[in-house]
Structure formats: C-alpha cells, structure tokens
Amino acid sequence: MPAFPAAARAALADSQLRRNLAHATGTIRAKRAAVVAEVDEWEELRLAGAAIKDNTLRHLDEHLLTLEAALQERGATVHWARDAAQACEIVAGIAKNHHVDEVVKVKSMATQEIGLNEALAEQGITAWETDLAELIVQLGDDLPSHILVPAIHRNRAEIREVFRRRMAAAGRPAPDDLTDEPAELAGAARLHLREKFLRAKMAVSGANFAVADTGTLVVVESEGNGRMCLTLPEVLVSVVGIEKVVPTWFDLDVFLQLLPRSSTGERMNPYTSTWSGITPGDGPQEMHVVLLDNGRTRALADSVGRQALRCIRCSACLNVCPVYERTGGHAYGSVYPGPIGAILNPLLKGVGVDEQTDSLPYASSLCGACFEACPVRIDIPEVLVHLRSQVVDAHRGGAPKPEAVAMKSAAWVLSDARRLTFAERGMGAAGKALNRFGRAVLPGGRRAVRRLPWPASLWTGARDLPAPPAESFRAWWRRTGRR
C-alpha cells in the first residue's frame, strides 16, 4: 500500500465510495447516539472500562497465566505465538494433523492481522469467511475497510453483482433472479454458507474477551454464523490477542454494556457466545487457543501508547472521524483502519520501518471526536501526537527535510531579540505585499490571505492563512507609550 496521503487522494476521487461511507457512518452514529443517551451512567461505565483495562494491562503476565491454567484444566490446548508467522504455523499444523483442507471462520480481526487466510491457502487449506460482510469482501477479492462492517464501502447493487459473479465458483451459486433487496441478499448468503457449516470439520475464531478466572472465551455477533462455527465442527481453534483478557465475569459485565451500544447501536448483541474448554458429546471435542503477541508487548512498553490496548474493537472512533468518512478504510493500508488503526499499527509494528506505517499518525485532524466516542476513553489524539514525535525521531540524520530546516530557522530567529526585530519588520513589509493576492473574511471578522503563489499555495490551498497585522506588538507598544 502507498503512504496514507497518496491512498487518501485516490479515495477522495471516488464519489460513490464517499456516498456509501457518508450514508453508513451517519446511520450508525445516529443509532449509537440514541442508545447511549438512554444510559444515565454512561460516563461512569466508560471510566470503569478504562480502569479495568489499565489494571489488567499492569498485571497482564499474571492474568495470562491464570487464563492458561483455567483453559488447560477444562481440556483446551494453549499455544503461545510471538508473531504472525508463528501463529499461522500453529493453526496450519492443527489443520494438517486432522487432514483438513477447508475451515470455516468466525469474523476475527486477529486472524486478518496475521494474514491467516493467505497463509492457510499456501498450505492448500481454504478458509471460508462466514460473516456476511466478510463473505462479501472475500467473494469480491476485496479488502475489509471497517472494523465492524468490513464491506461498508459497498452498496446493495454492488453486493448483488459480487454474489451473481462469484458465488458459483466458491460453492452454491446465487439465485438467477437475485435482486438487491437486503433480505434476498442475506438469504442467498445463508444458503451458500449452510453447506459449508455442515461440511466443515474445523473452525477458526477470535475472541472479543477472555475471562481469566474461568478460562472462558467470548464472541459477540449479530448474525448467528459465529454460533454455527463454535458448535458444529469437531475442532475449534481460537486466535486471541493477549490484550483481550479480563480478570473476572464481573469485569466482563461492564464491557458487555459498552460494546454493543458503541458498535452496532444496540442495547445488547443478538448472539453472545461463551465457551470454556470441552464438554463430552456437546460441541467441538478438541479446542486450541493461540495467545497472540505480534507486537502487543511492544505497545505495552510504551507508557503513552499502551492505552491503545484497551481497545475493544467497537469501531465507534471510525464512525465519528471526518477523515475516515471521506477516505474509507483502504487508505490506511491495514486491517485496523480509522483513528484506532492510525495508532495501533505503528505501535504494533514500530515506527521507522516503512513509509506507509509512518504516515498513519498524520492521518488525523486531531479534532478529538474519537476520544469522546471511545467507550474505554483511549485518548487517540494524545497518542497520535506522541507517535508523530517518534516518527520524526526515527528519521533524524542524513539530509534534513524542508520542515526541519524551517523549524531550525524559526528557532534561530526567535532565540534572539535583535533577529526577531528584523524579522518583524520584514513581516510588516510582507504583509503589505500579501494584499495583492486577495483577502478573505473568516467567521468572527478575522481576515485571511486567500491565496499565495507556489510553493506557498500548497498551504493556502488547504488552510486559512491569517493576514499579518499592520504593525508588530513592539511597534504598537512604542507607539502607544505603554511602559
């Protein structure tokens, strides 16, 4: 993927994409606002969620060992994966041991993060997505663009065409008379997936939460496909980020109130599935849990950035972000798009590694809407500014960039009173010259320069440039006789 500015420029040129995004995010925002307004203690719930997550992260090593012991006691096999390659190798190995050539999947950000589908395909194993939006993305040979609604960039007509053209090659074809009515599209997906549910011997899931003291994994979803994957196959493998652990069921209660309201705008999820190990004769008879690091301990070591590990993947920050609404998720070049992706990706990967990752902390106007919407109070603007400083530090040395030259020049001028005096006189003369390029009146009566010649036009083309004052503060002070 190119760096965010280049990818965003291409996305902004797609008017259909922008219409799709504006409609979808506007609808979700309205639903969320309505159900959040019903909860008088919403802010107290946010504070409680943040406190539980922070306390858990401070003692993460202890809670993970408690989780491992509880899972093993209930018959599950626990694997530890330091990175994506190791996690994919573990899952592929389990599939090969059972002579499986296809698996069904519950929607999972962690498995997308590690590229599990692609890794399994290289081993001759097909992974079928069963979430409706994920199915649309997979059949369309596309990429997810939203945490909650991966196909948010598609409208109904586009989805119908994807089903008609691609379903037959993947299994049961779409009906010949398929329309773009949502009920018919969902019905076609249901028939297509049913044979896969009944045939699959192995399923792969993630987990929204992992309760340490009972060894319980939790998945919340809206369609029931997760329940099918978690109960029908003989073997179940769950790939779980180590930050998903919560100590007790009492702690889980807080998040089951925060998550559905923040994500789908519902009071509770239609399906909340929990499972603790193996029950003879009921459900999968072999359970594996892969506890995934893949950069999370790197993020944990960052005293400012570690708050990103509170994230419960609700996508509320995406739905209120003016940047995301106009560019969509693909511009972020990651399975984690939007404001949370702009901080989570650099924290997991590290800065100074590639240009695309380093561009993400700048994919924000720092308006703060994401912090206000976040159910666990992640101060995303604070982390963005923190990461920007890390990106700058990572690129120190070598030929200085124009921005660095400008900052050093400003520091040289501002550090000496005589140099500042000369600069102020120059600004006064420049202010008079700028009048030739036109002025605009901003709200509140402030005046601004409308345009400047290149290269200064790169600034005035996207921002207001306040008009320089007629005289400097020092000149005004001398003229008015203030002592």
Description of the structure:
Strand 5 (about 210) and strand 6 form a beta hairpin. The protein has helices at about 5-10, 15-35, 40-60, 60-75, 85-95, 110-115, 115-120, 130-140, 155-170, 180-200, 225-230, 250-265, 295-300, 315-320, 320-325, 340-350, 355-360, 370-375, 380-395, 400-415, 415-435, 455-460, 475-480; strands at about 75-80, 100-105, 125-130, 200-205, 210, 215-220, 235-240, 245, 270-275, 285-290, 440, 445-450, 465. The chain folds into three domains: about 40-295, 3-Layer(aba) Sandwich (Rossmann fold); about 295-395, Fumarate Reductase Iron-sulfur Protein, Chain B, domain 2 (Orthogonal Bundle), CATH 1.10.1060.10; about 400-480, no CATH class. Helix content is about 50%, strand content about 10%. By secondary structure, the protein is α/β, with parallel strands linked by helices. Helix 3 crosses helix 12 and helix 16 (about 340-350) packs across helix 19 (about 380-395). The strands form three sheets. The protein has a six-stranded parallel sheet with strand order 1-10-7-4-2-3, with helices on both faces. A four-stranded mixed sheet has the order 8-5-6-9. Strands 11-12-13 form a three-stranded antiparallel sheet, with no helix packed on it. The model has no long low-confidence stretch (mean pLDDT about 90). The protein is globular. Pfam families: Fer4_8, LUD_dom. One of its GO terms (molecular function) is metal ion binding.
